[in-house]
Design goal:
Order of helices and strands: EHEHEHEHHHHEHEHHEEE
Number of helices: 10
Distance between the termini: 40 Å
CATH topology of the largest domain: Rossmann fold
CATH architecture of the largest domain: 3-Layer(aba) Sandwich
Structural class: alpha/beta
Strand content: 15-25%
Bound molecules: adenosine monophosphate
Number of strands: 9
């Protein structure tokens, strides 16, 4: 497994792979790897000749009062996992390589960035789209793998790739969950034991919401959201950013619920922000 820190070296490695007509599967991450990342890497491994994983905690997607400095970092464990999964190249650029002082170009996808997390994290998706566009230029992947746990992020990347005619196939992968149902997330490790136990209520609320929709018991999103907020408010130290039913493509809120739909939520447990969603097809 090759570890590359320099953008130039990453580009020449890419160039050699592409010249040999070998496909590149790319998994961009912020590290602190878990089973969700592992599933993406395994799929990339199955579908491509070479697997490139990036680890970059992207400062541009964190707001000034967000957890950039506290974001979990676990490089040696990450490298062990990547070795185990037979990753070929780990790309670990520094922030100054991605954002040199003269850096001045931003990718904005307003159509998908306004609702849900975009409302609560202004500039977040602009930071995500910009870094993913830059990483795509550097790695030039054949396929790039993203998790549906970050549903809105998948939509933003999809739109960007289509609009900018970026020659990469975006592969959206199902959410991997802990045995109790909580979606795997790097931020889960910041939860206390007690909060971790309570966090499963996020999934339970989404699961209940899906049942109520599928069985046509509650098809008015206002009523459904009120009902699910009652479940979430049982979590101690909990603050809800949103729980909403949206159109899977436009992400526009749905008043009268039609299928397909996405039920998505974001909440804070103490100082940790968790997101999750279920797709109702
Ligand atoms: P992150 O390191 O959190 O930026 O995530 C890197 C990639 O892994 C993103 O495409 C995420 O959507 C994906 N991912 C994170 N958690 C999960 C999960 N529980 N299941 C599937 N994919 C995930």
């Amino acid at each position: 497994m090759k570890i590359i820190h320099s953008v130039e070296e990453m580009k020449s490695s890419t160039h050699a792979t592409r010249r040999g007509r070998r496909s590149i599967g790319f998994v961009p991450t912020m590290g602190a790897l878990h089973e969700g990342h592992r599933a993406l890497i395994r799929r990339a491994r199955r579908e491509n000749d070479q697997v490139v994983v990036s680890i970059f905690v992207n400062p541009a997607q964190f707001g000034p009062r967000e957890d950039f400095t506290q974001y979990p970092r676990a490089l040696s464990k990450d490298l062990a996992l990547l070795k185990q999964e037979k990753c070929d190249v780990v790309f670990i650029p520094s922030a100054s390589q991605i954002y040199p002082p003269e850096f001045s170009t931003w990718v904005d996808v307003p159509a998908c960035s306004a609702s849900l997390c975009g409302k609560f994290r202004p500039g977040h998706f602009r930071g995500v789209a910009t870094v993913v566009a830059a990483l795509f230029q550097i790695v030039q992947p054949t396929r790039a793998y993203f998790g549906l746990k970050d549903y809105q992020q998948c939509r933003v990347i999809d739109r960007m790739v289509k609009d900018l005619q970026i020659p990469v196939r975006v592969v959206a992968c199902p959410t991997v969950r802990e045995p109790d149902g909580l979606a795997c997330s790097s931020r889960n490790r910041r939860l206390s034991k007690r909060d971790r136990e309570e966090a499963v209520k996020l999934y339970q609320a989404l699961y209940l919401g899906r049942e109520l929709i599928e069985q046509k018991i509650m098809l008015d999103s206002g009523r459904l959201e009120t009902r699910l907020k009652q479940v979430l408010s049982q979590i101690p130290h909990c603050r809800i950013d949103y729980i909403a039913v949206v159109d899977p493509v436009t992400l526009a809120p749905m008043r009268k619920i039609r299928r397909p739909a996405v039920l998505a939520a974001a909440l804070w447990i103490g100082k940790t922000r968790l997101i999750d969603n279920v797709v109702i097809s």
